[in-house]
Design a protein that fits this description.
Layout lengths: L2 E6 L3 H12 L4 E7 L2 H11 L3 E5 L7 H11 L4 E5 L3 H13 L3 E4 L14 H9 L40 E6 L3 H9 L9 E5 L6 H11 L3 E4 L10 E4 L5 E7 L3 E7 L10 H11 L4 E5 L8 H9 L3 E5 L8 H8 L5 E3 L1 H10 L3
Parallel strand pairs: 1-2, 1-3, 3-4, 4-5, 6-7, 6-12, 7-9, 8-9, 12-13, 13-14
Antiparallel strand pairs: 10-11
Length: about 350
């Protein structure tokens, strides 16, 4: 069965370009196009598409308000189609925090309209079509033991706010739905949180805007990771370099290292690469957190952290946009705790046993 897509964009040229990029995909069908939010709203009701592509910078429309209505009234996987400006990137990052599942740039790295995207839009649409939205869970259900678990994960309630002083570093991996999840998680991190490093699967050009969006939600400072940057308490560092893995190195003092390399587990930067470096460098003094995302990146790395003695946490299925990455980690026995997104911070900061 084909993935049914609705394109919403005020530019006839852009609508034609997006349609042409999908025309030769046998498993994707563009069911209709709209030039503004009003048309888009009616066509969503008419076609009930599997995926919506949304130009959030359309004139005469508050794209964030429209997206919020979609996610509230008729939750649908939305891919944001972004322009080349910093303002456009900031809006895109805020849209991801509201629940858009991914973003796609109209332009190449030079700022020119991309003539060929090598199938990126089609790939994003296929991934988005696998997203199934659930009603919010106010209180978590008891966690069942997953298949092939080496040890049953625990859910232990702790008072919020205290930090175990033997935690030198927190490492986080996330993908589809991750910006929204990170916003919830980091909101609970205090000003003096342990240094925290994040790999979020996203087009690297959007990473600085995502860092700014998360910084507004987090008491600690959120910034883009730079090579050789010291990792300090009260700071959160986001991977942002294309074709570079974010690693942690050091002995008495920890530093971020950016290393050019091939994709690992299908991604660069890779969560597996980050977690493996943390297992090697920080060992039992680290906390690893694997959040919502497609695929398996991070599962083997979280297992390496667990085997090194680190405290490891996976987001539960009820609050994941996509349960792929946490599920893979749980099936390996890599997660010591499985918890809903609104409970993960207390487990991470208290390093609950």
């Amino acid at each position: 069965m084909s993935v049914r897509v609705l394109i919403i964009d005020d530019s006839p040229t852009m609508r034609a370009i997006l349609m042409s990029r999908l025309a030769e995909q046998p498993d994707i069908e563009v069911v209709d196009t709209a030039s503004n939010a009003a048309e888009g709203r009616e066509l969503i009701k008419k076609h009930d598409p599997d995926v919506v592509t949304l130009d959030i910078e359309m004139p005469g429309m508050n794209g964030l308000d429209f997206l919020e209505k979609i996610m509230t009234l008729r939750p649908t996987p939305v891919i944001i189609i972004s322009g080349a400006t910093q303002e456009g990137n900031d809006v895109t990052a805020r849209a991801l925090a509201l629940g858009a599942v991914n973003c796609y740039s109209k332009y190449d790295t030079t700022g020119k309209l991309a003539l060929n995207d090598s199938g990126e839009l089609a790939r994003l649409i296929r991934d988005a079509a696998q997203v199934r939205f659930r009603a919010p869970v106010a209180e978590p259900a008891p966690v069942a033991e997953p298949v092939r678990m080496r040890a049953k994960p625990t859910l232990i309630e702790e008072s919020r706010g205290s930090i175990r002083r033997d935690t030198r570093l927190i490492a986080i991996g996330s993908s589809t739905g991750g910006v929204e999840a990170l916003q919830v998680l980091l909101r609970e991190f205090p000003l003096d949180c342990p240094p925290t490093v994040i790999v979020q699967h996203v087009n690297p050009r959007f990473a600085p805007a995502i860092a700014r969006t998360l910084d507004r939600a987090c008491p600690a400072q959120v910034q883009v990771a730079v090579n050789d940057m010291p990792l300090l308490p009260g700071n959160v560092y986001l991977a942002a370099e294309a074709e570079h893995h974010l690693l942690v190195r050091g002995t008495s003092k920890l530093h971020a290292k950016l290393r050019r390399g091939e994709p690992i587990s299908g991604h660069c930067p890779s969560v597996d690469a980050l977690f493996a470096s943390v297992a090697q460098t920080v060992g039992a003094e680290a906390v690893g957190i694997l959040l919502t995302g497609m695929g398996k990146d991070g599962a083997k790395g979280l297992l390496a952290m667990a085997e090194a003695g680190a405290h490891t946490i996976a987001q539960d299925e009820s609050t994941c946009t996509v349960f792929g990455m946490p599920r893979a980690a749980i099936s390996l026995g890599a997660a010591r705790v499985v918890a809903p997104i609104n409970r993960i911070a207390r487990h991470a900061l208290n390093k609950a046993a």
